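Running this now, will post back.
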Amino acid sequence: MTSVNDFTETRTKDMPALSLTGQTSASSRIAACIFHDLRQPLTAILANAEFLARPDLSETDRNELFQNIRWDVDRIDTLLSSLLKDFRGGTPLIPTAGNIVDTVECAIRMITVRREFRRIAITHQHKGMAVGWFDAARLERVIANLALNACEAVDPALGEVVITTFAGTDSLQIRVRDNGPGISSAIRESIFQSPVSYGKTRGSGLGLVIAKALVEDHGGTIYLDERCERGASFTINIPFVIPGKR
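Update: finished.
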């Protein structure tokens, strides 16, 4: 039986090399985003559906799996709505007062449901105020893309992914660090400009391109910490202060 991973990987390989720039048609950009970002919730739904087939599940566990599937379906609906607005030239960003801890936890939840990542230690540490001004759906996509890249790069049995968030007076810093093989110096200058993959046996390389576009929509920056001696470490800085609260 064809899995979600098999399907999305095949479709990604069939797609031409893409970058989210004016040189690429709008239809190609939206197709790239859909194929890339839908892969995560679809894989989560497949994993939960497989668990539902187990005869030894308790009623509590079964209800929890159903709730997880409903949650992922809602995530797909939200994602498609967001992508459709972008495609139609709608408002690129819809910031509201949101809780960054909740946003990070949602991103982690989407990753950890995948069977191949369940032995990877994914942790989140937060300092400072938790509530700020940002587009939760888009920022969740950014964090999920970075965490997914990290999980695909590390050892599935010994991997560690650490997400840290620090909210200052006006800005929020997000850092995603892993203990994988790191990023080759040969591609470091191009990882945000074109689809390239690093330290992974599979992947479209679109995650960082999409992440950069979404971070810049927030008026922020994202960069690779080249001082990191082991693994890869990405840092995001975005405005965080709620209007009128300065």
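The chain has one domain: 4-239. More later if anyone needs it.
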